[in-house]
Design a protein that fits this description.
Elements: H1 20-40, H2 47-56, H3 63-74, H4 81-104, E1 108-109, E2 112-113, H5 115-119, H6 121-142, H7 145-168, H8 176-201, H9 206-230, H10 236-239, H11 245-248, H12 254-262, H13 265-275, H14 282-294, H15 297-315, H16 323-337
Antiparallel strand pairs: 1-2
Helix pairs in contact: 1-3, 1-4, 1-16, 2-6, 3-4, 3-8, 3-16, 4-6, 4-7, 4-8, 6-7, 7-8, 8-9, 9-15, 9-16, 12-14, 12-15, 15-16
């Protein structure tokens, strides 16, 4: 018999959700994962560990490998296979970040200069390729064709999502559904795969495997929705990047899609010029933020994130209640409540 669905607490005055429970749950495993990461990012070419270490040790939450570790705790897995696989997940994620920063011309990542600014675009792309290769080495060492299929498919979907985002860039007519499809591929696919492989190594039932996939996928969508909301509601110190990056790059994220749909003719004219790249000054950004605020688009985006986070929590209802499940539900709450 499974426990009841754990609802989110929405009452005013409740403490902000934290990822502390997830950190405590996964700390021993994460130490093992970090050891694998440190070992496998080494190379006889000194630039490779220098550049990889710049990002890997740069303060990331390790949320994706934590999903693998937490999922293993949830299903009672007692082995160690998931440590290398969680490291593989982190390598895939890091490689995509390195490539993304080159594509976007980003200047900051996690509060400091992006790798492409320090080391240049060619080195950043090639080290990203190196980390992808290391990820696949770890997968093949595990020996499970099913795990290999899940993670390799996720890698392909991520790449497709990034290309889809590139083709949607500077297109003000981008629909909310197309946007959700893009973030479902570029972000949620790896969250889903990271969660699912825990059930695979533990030889769980198909329903348990699907439940962890659903948890990760919905969590990933919620996480990206909040990321996109923060670009119009947070400052650079909080975000660890330049505020307005998405705006200047002409990305049609949900706050903009909603502001454009809810705006009058004058506001739409502004958005059309801004997304096309003709209105990108600091004053233009301030005006964009004001329009987003006027139509409560950050609030609406967070409400949608709340919906997907609740779906993530609901997916875990087939598992018995306990520390692992509670920590994973709180992680979903954290994805929505966070300010950076």
């Amino acid at each position: 018999m499974t426990a009841e669905i754990l609802p989110f607490a929405n009452a005013a005055g409740k403490p902000e959700a934290s990822i502390d429970a997830m950190l405590a749950l996964t700390a021993p495993g994460l130490n093992a994962v970090n050891a694998v990461i440190l070992d496998r990012m080494q190379s006889e070419i000194p630039l490779i560990p220098r550049l990889a270490g710049h990002l890997i040790s740069g303060g990331g939450k390790r949320l994706r490998p934590m999903l693998t570790l937490a999922g293993a705790e949830l299903v009672g897995y007692q082995g160690t296979r998931h440590h290398k696989l969680a490291a593989s997940v982190e390598f895939i994620h890091t490689a995509t970040l390195l490539h993304d920063d080159v594509v976007d011309g980003s200047e900051m990542r996690r509060g400091k200069a992006a790798a492409n600014i320090i080391f240049g675009n060619p080195a950043t792309v090639l080290v990203g390729d190196f980390l992808f290769s290391r990820a696949f080495e770890l997968m093949t060492e595990d020996g499970s064709l099913r795990v290999l299929k899940i993670l390799s498919s996720a890698s392909a979907i991520i790449a497709e999502g990034e290309v889809a985002q590139l083709t949607a860039q500077r297109k003000v007519a981008t629909s909310e559904q197309r946007y959700l499809d893009i973030i479902g591929a570029k972000t949620a696919a790896l969250f889903a795969a990271a969660s699912r492989i825990a059930a695979v190594v533990a030889e769980c039932s198909d329903s348990e495997e699907q439940a962890l996939d659903d948890y990760g996928r919905n969590l990933g969508i919620a996480f990206q929705l909040v990321d996109d909301a923060l670009d119009y509601s947070s400052d650079a110190a909080e975000m660890g990047k330049d505020r307005g990056d998405d705006f200047r790059e002409g990305k049609m994220t949900l706050p903009v899609i909603l502001a454009y749909a809810r705006g009058d003719a004058e506001e739409r004219t502004f958005w059309e010029a801004a997304i096309a790249g003709h209105r990108t000054s600091d004053d233009d950004l301030a005006h964009a933020v004001a329009l987003v605020d006027r139509h409560d688009c950050v609030t609406a985006t967070r409400e949608r994130a709340q919906h997907f986070a609740q779906r993530a929590a609901d997916a875990l209802s087939i598992f018995p209640d306990g520390k692992a499940r509670e920590a994973m539900v709180e992680a979903a709450q954290f994805a929505v409540a966070r300010g950076h």
